[in-house]
Amino acid sequence: MNPPLKFAPAVRAALDSGRPVVALESTIITHGMPYPQNLEMARKVEDTIRQAGAEPATIAVMSGHIHIGLTDDELERLAQTPQDQAMKVSRADMPVCLAQGRTGATTVAATMIGAHLAGIRVFATGGIGGVHRGAETSFDISADLYELAQTPVTVVCAGAKAILDLPKTWETLETLGVPVIAYGQDDLPAFWSRQSGLPAPLRMDSAADIAAAADMRAALGLPGGQLVANPISQADEIPLDEITPVVEQALADADAQGITAKAVTPFLLQRIFELTGGRSLESNIALVLNNARLAAEIAAEMARQP
Ligand code: PSU
Ligand code: MN
Prior knowledge:
The chain is an alpha/beta fold.
């Protein structure tokens, strides 16, 4: 039995002719942003990748198939699906979602799985999941981290969200042998903010170096991918000292309302959106576009090599 992949024609054509392709996730659409901004973001990010000379492949589960690239109709339908009707699909859920013919939005972990099955080596997102604050009692650690350790896809993000325990997140990735590469600066970025105050374990300044490191990892026979942390632009950032109290407030609200498990990240993002009067969403969209541009450059470098 072959994996049930369904390619958009443009993605199939790009892959067949060795042109650069960038994968995109769909949980950010269903669970990360409100409608209609989520749809606008999804379209803009695809356009940005095309303008940079690569083909976008938004990945989602629909009617028994992993879709590698969505039509505009499918994108719109997904963007309009209420959170409680779209399954948030990670590694554990993917086979179940497919077998039951349900609609599922793929997280970073599940998108990496789909991308790898499709032969796509680069993926752009906003932020990855990580070690949640209080994980020492809740054990809430995202499957995204373990996926990075086993699936060979280079993931471009803007760091991990400040809603997480950032030091524990980076420590876990180190333990798992995942290269965490800050792009163009010494510090790790923290999603809405350029600086986290935490030094990056690795730094790279060019897409060519990032592509070469991915090839070298494959040559060494090492499983797993790479995580590139690309800082948001100065014009779009919310500095750490401004976002920190907002994050604290959102975390306190989540705690008071007893929010747990898969609901935590979507709840916090929505609450921070409310508390910042929408500014967090503007930053979020800007950083995704920024990551899409870098991912397209990396995909182009990878496509240069046979
Ligand atoms: N970052 C965002 N918005 C999101 C997510 C991350 O800016 O919606 C999603 C990603 O799909 C990521 C997931 O894989 O949240 C992590 O969820 P969890 O913490 O439940 O593993
Ligand atoms: Mn979790």
